Amino acid sequence: MMKIYVERNDLMKALGHSHSVVEKKTTIPALSHVLLQTEGTKLKITATDLELTIIEVIDADVEMEGSATVLESMFYEIVRKLPDGAKITLQMKENGNQLLLNSGASRFTLSCLPTKEFPSVQITELPYHFKIPAKDLLRLLNRTEFAMSTEETRYYLNGIYIHPYQNQELRAVATDGHRLARVSVPLPEGAEDFPGIIISRKTVNEILKILPDQNSDVDIRLSETQITFTFENVFLSSRLIDGVFPDYEKAIPNGNNKVVRLQVNPFLKAVERVAIISSEHSRGLKIEAQSGKLILSSVSSEIGSAVEEIEAHYGAESIEIGFNSKYLMDIAKQMENDEAEFSFADTNTAVIIQNLADARSLYVLMPMRV
């Protein structure tokens, strides 16, 4: 029967990672549980919702080997409320259906499910394999995740599309039909031939939450239906979205010849101020490009109006175009403190936005009637 000793902070970190994976409302009781297993001098913690699985290994003083399946929400709350640095003892009772948790003066007895009821996690060999620096993977996901769709009917847009491009780049693309984000990093060795894949929104959010922002590598293995990420003491496996991502190149206009250059930070601050007046429903904001400046404005029949001018490099004929202010801010936040180039065609054509300090990123924003 399992008996181990663990550090509260180590256990809390691992449970924090698994907490968003575990299903809070499910018809399968085992999916609301985590599986605890001893493994040498380690404790292995597994959580799954059948689409996404996370396995994390932490240090433990193992007195007796064994396993337990415990309700994650209760286990998480107990560990979270124990003091930092606390020592925890976990011990299965002889009846095999209760876990004792002792820490200082605290004593808890937690009901357990039979471990055989926990879903079997199959770790199979996948045909494609490469390693990518953690900072590159973070860049791909961080710079595109805001453009993922939340519209369930177009499920194939509810994630980030990743594929190799011309044997030179690894590209990440996300779009919700209103805006598009395309970001690239140098192509890792071994990533030349894998098919384009769509990583689900839940998986993207989990990776961004737990991936260390440091000079380490992430081991990626994938097939057309599954992807795994291994880094430090974490293993994450996810089912890929089964769908066809649209030809995103068709959403990038070719004839945008009216070009505005501006400093992003003052532009973002001006948009934030002017957008205060915009309607909560439409968030409409108008941009008028004139020689040497942009004029930002918004009008609300209930609230009033706002106008602000900022400096910009622009020499073509005046153009006036409306945007959703939130979408505009989302893109601008990807390139704060840099200089950006906005390429317009007319009031009905999408604008292309590029960071002049980063040739590997490109954003497209559809206009709206204001």
UniProtKB/TrEMBL annotation:
Domain DNA polymerase III beta sliding clamp N-terminal as annotated: residue spans: 2-121
Keywords, comma-separated and alphabetical: Cytoplasm, DNA replication, DNA-binding, DNA-directed DNA polymerase, Nucleotidyltransferase, Transferase
Top-level lineage group: Bacteria
Domain (DNA polymerase III beta sliding clamp C-terminal) ranges: 250-369
Gene Ontology MF terms in the entry: 3'-5' exonuclease activity; DNA binding; DNA-directed DNA polymerase activity
Location of this chain's protein in the cell: Cytoplasm
Cytoplasm listed as a keyword: yes
Residues passing through the membrane, by range: none
Name of the protein this chain belongs to: Beta sliding clamp
Organism: Caedimonas varicaedens
